[in-house]
């Protein structure tokens, strides 16, 4: 999903500026009791001597969004306080609150225009729940699978999710397995990296004896065992879900122009300072686009474009809005926008693309021929892909992708290093790949 939040919508518009091969050695843990199918509320996790490995917590990580307009200020305050997402330098503590206060009324209006709030929580909870139902059938050895959502800037926040895990019986001497499943298919330090930094921070505060002196030795020993699904840009199910939505929208164009519709794959842009540091996001987004084009048979011309640039510094381009306007002015009005880095609708699709980019195209004479492919949302193909990805991760005992241990070449963040060392299980894995 989105790399940095729709900053174009958050600041003045006039300022436009395969899976893990790290394996833990086989450790024999007492397994966790199952949950009765007739119970609407899962009882606490308990230990027993059976061979089952469940329950398993499946934690969907995403940026999140305010569900109501009243939540906008808190959302913006947390967003502008995150130096991983919006680096404001030594003045972050002063500029962040100032910007969030000034932007709140305008952003509240934008959320009001798309129905009064972001639908991302609704879709995230639905996707996680439906995926877990499939996993209970396909992966009975790790069942029951319990869905959780952890948002970086909106409820339910990471710390709320972690408290819920402990309340449900994971950790605190009882062990249990949890999978941090990023809902950003393509990895960026600004999104997945920031979410993992936050998860690591709260894990340290709640389960590390060096940070939480109230923990007993048994509680510290029986902490939650984490693994991470940190990127999945070319998973066949993801590619198929995108391709089917594109094909469905192409059917709305007259047959005689259908193969000449220009496909514009739109992803959130990044500052060139982040790109030049070595962030893998641009390459992984491009990999998704190429895989989708391969599935579609390269029938249509296409471009990868980038949205939500803000501020005077250089950003990755070309910008989505500029590209659409330029093509329409040149007479190419049949354009299909595809949100290629998002797994559900939110303000970047519903407001920025639908109410800004497409509206402006129509004002330039596009006559309704600039359209957007549906977001993945409740797509059964997409949810099956999530289950396939998670199921393979669980069966293979994976910890994370091989890529995750490697920081950006220009990264100097000790926090990033510590987080990667924790989640890659540096001291426990048999594979001696290095975390740098």
Automatic annotation (TrEMBL):
EC number: 4.98.1.1
Reaction(s) catalysed (UniProt annotation): heme b + 2 H(+) = protoporphyrin IX + Fe(2+)
Biological process (GO), any one: heme biosynthetic process
Primary site of residence: mitochondrion
GO cellular component, one term: mitochondrial inner membrane
Pathway connected to this protein: Porphyrin-containing compound metabolism; protoheme biosynthesis; protoheme from protoporphyrin-IX: step 1/1
Keywords for the protein's UniProt record, in alphabetical order: Heme biosynthesis, Iron, Lyase, Membrane, Mitochondrion, Mitochondrion inner membrane, Porphyrin biosynthesis, Transit peptide
Topology of the protein relative to the lipid bilayer: Peripheral membrane protein
InterPro entries xrefs: Ferrochelatase (IPR001015), Ferrochelatase_AS (IPR019772), Ferrochelatase_C (IPR033644), Ferrochelatase_N (IPR033659)
Domain of life: Eukaryota
PROSITE patterns from the UniProt entry: FERROCHELATASE (PS00534)
Keyword Transit peptide: yes
Record's subcellular location: Mitochondrion inner membrane
Function: Catalyzes the ferrous insertion into protoporphyrin IX.
Family, similarity comment: Belongs to the ferrochelatase family.
PANTHER family documented for this protein: FERROCHELATASE (PTHR11108), FERROCHELATASE, MITOCHONDRIAL (PTHR11108:SF1)
Protein name listed in UniProt: Ferrochelatase
Species annotation: Hortaea werneckii EXF-2000
Lineage of the species this protein comes from: Eukaryota, Fungi, Dikarya, Ascomycota, Pezizomycotina
């Amino acid at each position: 999903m989105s790399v940095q939040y729709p900053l174009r919508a958050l600041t003045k518009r006039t300022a436009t500026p395969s899976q893990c091969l790290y394996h833990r050695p086989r450790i024999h843990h007492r397994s966790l009791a199952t949950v009765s199918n007739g119970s609407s509320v899962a009882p606490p996790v308990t230990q027993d001597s059976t061979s089952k490995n469940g329950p398993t917590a499946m934690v969907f990580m995403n940026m999140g969004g305010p569900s109501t307009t009243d939540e906008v200020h808190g959302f913006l305050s947390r967003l502008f306080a995150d130096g991983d997402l919006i680096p404001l330098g030594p003045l972050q503590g002063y500029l962040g609150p100032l910007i969030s206060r000034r932007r709140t009324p305008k952003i509240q209006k934008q959320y009001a225009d798309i129905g009064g709030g972001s639908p991302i929580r609704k879709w995230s909870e639905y996707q996680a729940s439906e995926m877990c139902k499939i996993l209970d059938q396909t992966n009975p050895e790790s069942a029951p699978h319990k869905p959780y959502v952890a948002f970086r800037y909106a409820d339910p926040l990471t710390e709320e999710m972690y408290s819920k895990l402990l309340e449900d019986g994971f950790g605190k001497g009882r062990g249990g397995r949890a999978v941090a499943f990023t809902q950003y298919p393509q990895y960026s330090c600004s999104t997945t990296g920031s979410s993992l930094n936050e998860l690591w921070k709260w894990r340290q505060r709640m389960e590390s004896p060096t940070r939480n002196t109230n923990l007993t030795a048994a509680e510290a020993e029986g902490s939650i065992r984490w693994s991470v699904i940190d990127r999945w840009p070319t998973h066949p199910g993801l590619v198929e879900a995108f391709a089917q939505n594109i094909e469905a929208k192409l059917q709305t164009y007259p047959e005689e122009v259908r193969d000449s519709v220009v496909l514009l794959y739109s992803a959130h842009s990044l500052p060139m300072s982040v790109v030049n540091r070595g962030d893998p996001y641009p390459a992984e987004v491009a990999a998704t686009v190429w895989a989708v084009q391969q599935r579609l048979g390269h029938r249509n011309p296409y471009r990868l474009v980038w949205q939500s640039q803000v501020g005077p510094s250089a950003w990755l381009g070309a910008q989505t809005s500029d590209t659409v306007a330029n093509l329409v002015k040149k007479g190419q009005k049949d354009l299909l926008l595809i949100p290629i880095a998002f797994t559900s609708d939110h303000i970047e699709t519903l407001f920025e693309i639908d109410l800004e980019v497409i509206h402006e195209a129509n004002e330039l004479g596009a006559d309704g021929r600039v359209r957007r492919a549906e977001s993945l949302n409740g797509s059964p193909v997409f949810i099956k892909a999530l289950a396939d990805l998670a199921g393979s991760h669980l069966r293979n005992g994976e910890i994370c992708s091989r890529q995750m241990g490697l920081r950006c070449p220009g990264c100097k963040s000790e926090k990033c290093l510590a987080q990667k060392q924790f989640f890659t299980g540096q001291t426990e894995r048999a594979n001696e790949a290095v975390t740098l």
